[in-house]
Amino acid sequence: MKSDQLLDAKGLACPMPIVRTKKAMDALESEQVLEVHATDKGAKSDLTAWAKAGGHTLLEMNEDNGVFVFFIQKK
Amino acid sequence: MAIQKMTAAQVASRVIRKSNLFILDVRNEDTFQDWKIEGEAFQYLNIPYFDLLDGVDDILDLLPKDTDILVVCAKEGSSVMVAEMLSEQGLDVFYLKGGMKAWSEYLRPVKVGSLKNGGALYQFVRLGKGCLSYLIESDGEAMIVDPARMTEPYESFAKDKGIMIKYAVDTHLHADHISGGRMLAEKTGSTYYLPPKDADEITFAYTPLDDGRTITVGGTSISVESIHSPGHTSGSTTLLIDQTYLLTGDILFVESIGRPDLAGKAEDWVGDLRNTLYHSYRDLPGNLTVLPAHFSKVSELGDQGEVKAVLGDLFEKNEGLHLDEAEFRKAVTENLPPQPNAYQEIRKTNMGKLSPDQEAQQEMEIGPNRCAIQD
After folding, report:
1. By the CB < 8 Å criterion, does A67 face chain B?
2. Which of A18, A24, B50, B161 is 20 to 30 A distant from B237 in Cα terms?
3. Parallel, antiparallel, or unpaired: how do β-strands B141-145 and B131-138 relate?
4. CB-count exposure of residue A28 (10 Å: 0-12, 13-18, 19+)
5. Weakly modelled stretches of chain B, pLDDT under 70
């Protein structure tokens, strides 16, 4: 999947993956796609809930060798 | 204003004293609905931390002025962030050290009673998960029953008292938590007992806890008799200690009874469970002290945080012991609560078939025990 920006949040513990994601998202235009890589297990449910609460669309999420990859489209 | 940490032990004291505390839980809503810190006088507000990244102004009016506020999250990081934001607004707040993981792992020993020839019986209360384990000591020796995954609390307790852990016993193959029995046996050289009917698929050495076996703890001393009491699992075994204490495992609880569905089909074990509760237990003296392996509600905790009941009283009050056959079948097979988190993986880990790392083990044990037919 194609993204407009990549955020590497690997190795960061909660709450940093979401803090960084929010910052990156704020800098994007509407409908642009942010790709987030995170290793914190909590990021899976939290990023999903965060995107939903903010009205963003989680286009895809997968796990590759302990790395969670998210594609989130800005509202 | 500064933020302060509150330990799981300090929170536990407030639960037991029934003091008040305002819990601002910043985990996401599903997680909070599923499992939280329970206290009879606690108040709660659940706002996920990611809804507070722009500031805490919106929630200031929802926070009390005259009650201590504890910010809680899964591991600690987010609660510190939110506590600092509140502190910048002039509030004095606490955060939970180690988060819900630490709450899940905290064990609190409480003395339940003395034994006839000296020695004592202690209950280790795992408040976060509702698990109860036991340390029976006599004449310098100790037995641990249904030990939690965290073996350090038993080891340091024994060290402080100058006693040796000689035996570790599981009343059944657990589905809600990872047993510390095998680990205790490896670390202390103690003998690990498990009912043979629950051990078909066990991949490591254990000693069978056969029906009618007697284990003697201490030289002088107390005996532990095992009584096969199937129903929660096919091997489930009850221990009678010092002719006084009845360790009922996951068969009989103070306010509920065990569920028969976690190791297979509920229908298969309904008859066994009924027979154990309505016949085998009926034949025992009514003055025995029942000590179960779980509790579900904090209202079951006594003044010191202990969970116990008199067997005869349970035959009067526990609704699970007052059902006719049809009602009983329905109660233990229909509308059961959700299964414990990761219960299949937990059973396999307890068989020695899976060896998850420590972080994965902590993750598997998240949530309440859910071994009773009612939540």
Report:
1. no
2. B161
3. antiparallel
4. middle
5. 1, 219-221
The closest of B57, B91, B73, B65 to B25, measured between CA atoms, is B73
Q: Between chains, do B77 and A15 touch, taking CB under 8 Å as contact?
A: yes
Q: What Rg do the C-alpha atoms of chain A give, in angstroms? A: 11
| CB-defined contacts A:B, below 8 A | 41
* Residues in B touching A49 (Cβ below 8 Å): 28-30, 48, 50
Number of domains in chain A: 1
B58 interface with A at CB cutoff 8 Å: no
pLDDT tens digits, one per residue of B280-308: 999 999 999 999 999 999 999 999 999 99
**Can you give the residue ranges of every domain in chain B?**
3-103, 107-364
Task: Answer whether B75 touches A (CB < 8 Å).
Answer: yes
| Both structure tokens of A75 | 């509202």
For this structure, is B371 an active site residue? no
Q: Which residue is associated with the tokens 């254990």? A: B206
CATH number where A12 lies: 3.30.110.40
CATH class of B3-103: alpha beta
Residues of A whose CB is below 8 A from B73? 14-15
Residues in Cβ contact with B328 at an 8 Å cutoff, skipping those fewer than 6 apart: B270, B274
B28 touches chain A (CB under 8 A): yes
- Domain span at residue A21 reads 5-73
Q: Which CATH number fits domain B107-364: 2.30.30.520, 3.60.15.10, 3.30.70.20, 3.30.420.10?
A: 3.60.15.10
Q: How does strand B3-6 pair with strand B93-96?
A: parallel
Catalytic residue (one of B73, B158, B209, B241): B73
Name, in order, each residue with C-beta under 8 angstroms of B293's C-beta and a sequence gap of 6 or more.
Answer: B131, B132, B133, B146, B171, B247, B248, B249, B250, B371
* ipTM reported for the complex, 2 dp: 0.90
Confidence of residue A42 (pLDDT cuts 50, 70, 90): confident
